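I'd like us to work through together how a protein chain folds, taking it slowly. To get us started, please write out a protein record for me. Go ahead whenever you are ready, and we will take it from there:
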Amino acid sequence: MKPAVPFSRISVAPMMDWTDRHYRYFMRLISKHALLYTEMVTTGAILRGKDNHRYLSFSKEEHPVALQLGGDSPGSLAECAKIGEDYGYDEINLNVGCPSDRVQSGSFGACLMKEPNLVAEMVAACKSQVKVPVTVKHRIGVNGKESYEDLYDFVSKINVAGVDQIIVHARIAILEGLSPKENRSIPPLRYEDVYRLKQDFPDLSIVINGGIKTHSEIADHLSKVDGVMIGRAAYDNPFLFQDVDVLYYGSKLPVRLREEVLSELIPYVRSVLVREGKVHHILRHILGLYHGEKGAREYRKFLTDRMHTNGANESILEACISR
């Protein structure tokens, strides 16, 4: 089995409105090695926007971190990939998996699976401009092009174009009639299709995504593909990642306690509040820290009741630790 692109054995999926820089900093306190992804950033936002720093800035502590781009123009994507590389991102990822109406209206996301030649051009254009890995996150298909043969054709073309790695959400996307949330649960998971891709493309690094929630599931998938990407479970239960560095990266460092994570988040919150924002912009991401633990509901209520009040600051975390 070909080794995966560096750092990507275990990763946290790009999720709109969730995987912003505050969430990524928080997750980095739990795992030093799991690959983190930005929310999708469109080429229009980068090329026509007036404040790239707003979309692209991140803390050095977030490495390794990948920039996910949304677009359908090879030239524009290549230009944005170069900008992302110059910002210091460790990987450029192309979104060919999002099924939302808003994304489809821009002719990118999952609907691009109907245009494998165009996606191959997008990959080749980005590869011509950057030295960091260029990867594609996609579905196993879309309605109307949902057979394994369609998937094989898509992957073969982007493979020839030089894609460094693919991340495959093991569901098709239904482009009409389902919400993005429904598209994450209603189409059945077809893990076997992803395993088959690895058999058919043994030299291509392949990461599996979709419905994975436990370390036993992760271990099973890693026996068949190169990497595993975790989505909603990483947000709802972030401390799932407490064992990632030891189990999958050979770390000898002791596993962190939740209270240590909260304590180390305090200076970050303080520094952010000096510059911008409200404390709830950060603390909304840590509500799941005690997921499954006794007192989890009280913890969430304690934070929620306080983080939206006027003048709320990092002292909430200090109070939370001392409870």
About this structure: The domain at 10-249 is CATH 3.20.20.70 (TIM Barrel). The chain has 16 helices and nine strands.
